[in-house]
Amino acid sequence: MKHSVDWTHDPDLRSWVESANQPDTDFPIQNLPLGVFRRQGMAESARIGVAIGNQVLDLFQAVQMGLLTELPEKLQFACTATLLNPLMALGAEASLHLRHQLSQFLQSSNQPPAFDSGILVPIAEVEMLLPAAIGDYTDFYASIFHATSVGKLFRPDNPLLPNYKFVPIAYHGRASSIVPSGTPIQRPQGQHKQPEETIPTFGPTRLLDYELEVGGFVGAGNKLGQAIALDQAEDHLFGLCLVNDWSARDIQAWEYQPLGPFLAKSFATTISPWVVTLEALAPFRCPAFTRPTDDPVPLPYLASSTNTEWGGIDLILEVKICTARMRAAGMEPFLLSRTSFNQMYWTLAQMLTHHASNGCNLRPGDLIASGTVSGADPGTQGCLLEITQRGAHPLKLPTGEVRAFLLDGDEVIFHGYCEKANYARIGFGECRGIVGIAI
User: Fold this and answer.
1) CA nearest neighbour of 1 among 95, 75, 92, 100
2) Residues belonging to the active site
């Protein structure tokens, strides 16, 4: 299924939720991302919500009030769940059907429900939870600029390993330590060894880093032993979020050979709470990254004209930092980098197809992440390891502070948004986490 631009993307659409009509909102009526929330201070079950302006539309309440009766019963029932997994499992057609119904209901030309109906809750008054039960988490390494830059730091004569341009590299991450935006991040402890030391020591990481990534939630899954063709891959993707794959670089350097990342990554991964559906992103699709002419052509199962023509996503990503001193002084977070997801060497469809190519069964709510999103130019790097060149060139912040890696009290904030002439700007909200003391 190709996600096409339709009437729900009309930039002239307006909502009876006035805050959704502001030009700087992340959540206009053209977006309609889904998440899971609970009212602050309320002893109630989690509910699925839709972000609209500065409000959350309560889907459980909408179903109870009979406002979504045009949807099939199975889809209505999924909207009353406490997680997005049942809705994800219904597939792309159901997601599109729900989008159409919600867009029609929220349009300014329609009569809004009674003010005291409880169908809308201010975003400022809710606690955002994980959007899905994440059974499995796979982290890719899909930016060739990131892979090359990091490779040069550790293998100057051989920065990019020979398999990179043939296979989407990934490792199996830890799903249990995925947390929603705003969750404090404890500095992990582990083994690390300095070059001059003869044996490793155990203690708090001294080289804590962030990694700017994009995550894709699996929708309808596949059976064990069943591959997924590239042109059908996005039928199995529900939507996207922002991902911070926190990394302890000193622990990572000591442990990653021969089997790859382990404790340096498994202590925490932060995701943004709102899932932007592929239907919402249709206007911002673009060609896949143009490979240099001397690069190998992808193997047939990873190649198609459809993927080449529109497999990319023109998504702008930003990283900001706010230190304890900056907060005390009332200063705005400082922009560390800005980059674009359209520069990834492998598309999300290629990642998912490769993941299932050996018959691995993907399930609704599984999360795949892109790996660090970095560009080729200065100011487009997605982690401090690259920005500071492994700490050799520390950053100077507006307070006069310097950072090679993260210190306790530092808060890292990701933003993501899509904008294009003749379409409404849509955003992903925030993915943030503040670093605390060692466990």
Assistant:
1) 92
2) 146
Q: Delimit the domains of the chain by residue range.
A: 7-129, 137-438
Q: What is the DSSP string of 76-88?
A: HHHHTSSSSHHHH
Identify the residue whose tokens are 């492994």.
390
Q: How many whole angstroms separate alpha carbon 30 and alpha carbon 27?
A: 8
3-state secondary structure (DSSP) of residue 348: helix
- Of 371, 298, 367, nearest in space to 150 by CA: 371
**Two domains, one topology: 7-129 and 137-438:** no
Identify the CATH number of the domain defined by range 7-129.
2.30.30.230
CA dist 388 and 403 (Å) reads 8
Answer yes or no: are the C-beta atoms of 5 and 283 closer than 8 Å.
Answer: yes
What's the pLDDT tens digit per position in 231-259?
999 999 999 999 999 999 999 999 988 88
The residue assigned the tokens 């199996």 is 172
Give percent of the chain above pLDDT 90: 90
Render pLDDT for 328-386 as a digit per residue (tens, 0 to 9).
999 999 999 999 999 999 999 999 999 999 999 999 999 999 999 999 999 999 999 99
Residue 304 identity:
S
The verdict on domain 137-438 having CATH code 3.90.850.10 is yes
CB count within 10 Å of CB 69 equals 10
Sorting pLDDT into bands at 50, 70 and 90, what band is 413?
Answer: very high
- Smallest CA-to-CA distance from 238 within 86, 72, 25 is with 86
CA distance 375 to 118: 45
Residue 193 has a CB neighbour count (10 Å cut-off) of 15
pLDDT tens profile 265-317 = 999 999 999 999 999 999 999 999 999 999 999 999 999 999 999 999 999 99
> What distance in Å separates the CA atoms of residue 106 and residue 253, rounded to the nearest whole number?
51
Looking at residue 19, the DSSP 8-state letter turns out to be G
